[in-house]
Amino acid sequence: MRLGTLVVFLLLAPAAARPLAAQAGLIPEPREYSARASLPIGRGVVLVTPALTEDRFAAADLREYLGTRDIGIVPAGTGKAIMVSLVRAGTPAAKAVSATQGFFTDSTRKNEGYVLVAEGRRVTIVGASASGVFYGVQTLKQLVGGRGGAASLRGAVIRDWPAMRWRGFHDDLSRGPVPTLEFQKKQIRTFAAYKLNIYSPYFEHTLSYAANPLIAPPGGAMTRADVRELVAYARRYHVQVVPEQEAFGHLHHVLKFETYAPLGETPHGHVLAPGQAATLPLIQSWFREIDSLFPGDFIHIGADETDELGKGRSADAVAARGLGAVYLDFLAAVDSVLRPTGRRILFWGDVAMHAPTLVSQLPKGMIAVGWEYSSDSNFDRFLKPFRDVGMETWVAPGVSNWNRVWPDFRTALPNIQGFVLAGQMGGSTGVLNTSWDDDGEGLFNETWYGVLFGAAAGWQAGESSIADFQANYGRIFHGDTTGMIDQAQGELMAAHALLAGAGLGDADDRLFWLDPWSDAGRGTTEAILPIVSQLRIKAESALVLVAKARTQPLAETDALDALELGARRIELIGTKYQAAEEIARMYAEARDSVGTSRAGELLLEISQANGRIQDIRDAFTITRELYQAAWLRENRPYWIENVLARYDIEIQRWITRGDAVWEARRVMPRSKWLPGYKEIGIPAPVGQ
């Protein structure tokens, strides 16, 4: 098929189908793609210096990437080397590329679109903007296969542009982990590589304010110097840093201070009271500093989950005028004091959507961000109240990492797929995929699977294929040619499914930390036992697959370490309940066998160097070590002791229990007696 025919066919085809783009095997999938013969690049690449300074950064990024694949940059005229040119639309070099004809005709394509032609012995990337050229380079990097002398480049003709103007990721920096500046830079680089253009850090109290220095925790906040460095770094990668500073709810870590307590709806609560005279000046002072630190188009004021509103200082106003009216009036008031910044104001739409008759009173320049994290079939209901009054909307799905030992991508992928599709169909201009750290234990390196699918869904037109993404992820993100990393992800999703099928939700923190010998733990033990062997095998299979995949050179190894940690934590869930129940059964048999050698043998099986109790202790000890290392690879030391303390409690719990069994075994030959279940702390077996 000739290129001209291909282009016409793709332009006429429904956007949701993308019938040929799926053949590309890239993340995101390009809008228009036609394969060409592969180009050997092991002899080196001639990288033509771009005419514009902005594009030289993209060239430097490509140079650095090729270096990681042991592909050299060689002088012009080097025999058999491939020539790569980065050029702007409208230049003679761009006009010589037939695929550019008629392409840069609208603002969407001019803003971020690009044309990539890799055939013969030449690669040309054409963009009408610096971001377009940069995104073309990111696609080119994904076309490289192999290393060194064996490296090759998949030939292709690609014309590509985004479905949604704003494509971002929202990262919780206020519920525990606060990333290091270096890790945030890595996030920026990785977001940009998959064509995200917004990074939105979430602040309740972890941004240092000169005018309000009491709020930020020592060692656990971004400083002004941090922000300036990160913003400048992100700009080079065409990523805008859009801060979210909560300005209504979720402010307990501010209101817990006596200095700010009078501004709360309830004493030391979570929500600002709209009627307090000092409330708006406080918000204004925060955003005055934000305005000086974060240049860009947007600021995010949060304003979600204001559940305390009307239960304290605003009770009379809510009783007289209604909750919706009080809420929306305050939102409009915040907009009015922040409007002089000239920024578009983002706010979460979960509260306002329930007062659709009043939404029309909000300033039309505000942007409602609808959020929902389930696999809901009617995502449009989170957008319609705002769209109906002419407000711009964004969508916010999530990676389902919160309160879990490993993200539930069974839920996350269809949530992202469905909500972004609804947003595109409803005219939303942006997607803000989210992670949250409600439990204070979340590791960002565990979330990349959901992050990259969100990036793909926001760039691609129509419904993004989960199956295509899952088939490409390991190869594109990690350089895995075996498919084993994709299989490992599948095993952990299957582990979540097993727990859900047993009525236990998924691999969440409660299962991980719950004592199997507590009253609540006995019911959980009964539910998990029928699937515990399968659960452990799924987690262990993931560990084996990753270990085998590591025999080849791989990228993003920190993310693989996090995957292994997630698998070990799921495996520990299974080990704990299974071993704890084996101990209960052994102890019951030992009590029935007092006076025989069998009783002593059973007690040794329960507690000795290789006892079941020690199996549980050792699993927590090993996991603690791996968790601490994984945390420090991405986060500041702040907060980690809150999590490590839980591991220490579990380790000590099982040490104490082991000592009790050992002591019972020591005295049994003389006493001819073993303590009862309550005395020794071991329950009767399930069902007895």
Brief summary of the model shown:
The protein has 23 helices and 16 strands. It is α/β, with parallel strands linked by helices. The N terminus is likely disordered.
Describe, in plain words, how this protein is organized in 3D:
With 688 residues, the protein is an alpha/beta fold. It has 3 domains: 158 residues, 2-Layer Sandwich (Chitobiase, domain 2); 299 residues, Alpha-Beta Barrel (TIM Barrel), CATH 3.20.20; 196 residues, Four Helix Bundle (Hemerythrin (Met), subunit A) (Up-down Bundle), CATH 1.20.120. The protein is built from 23 helices and 16 strands. The strands form 2 sheets. Strands 8, 9, 10, 11, 12, 13, 14, 15 and 16 form a 9-stranded parallel β-sheet that branches. Strands 1, 2, 3, 4, 5, 6 and 7 form a 7-stranded mixed β-sheet that branches.
Structural class: alpha/beta
Low-confidence stretches: 1-22
- Morphology call: globular
Mean pLDDT: 95
Count of distinct structural domains = 3
Approximate strand percentage: 5-15%
Distance between the termini: 72 Å
Question: What's the CATH C level of the largest domain?
Answer: Alpha Beta
Number of strands: 16
Radius of gyration: 28 Å
> What is the CATH architecture descriptor of the largest domain?
Alpha-Beta Barrel
Any idea of the CATH topology of the largest domain?
A: TIM Barrel
Q: Which percent bin holds the helix content?
A: 40-55%
What's the number of helices?
A: 23
The biggest sheet, with number of strands, parallel, antiparallel or mixed sense and barrel status, is: 9 strands, parallel
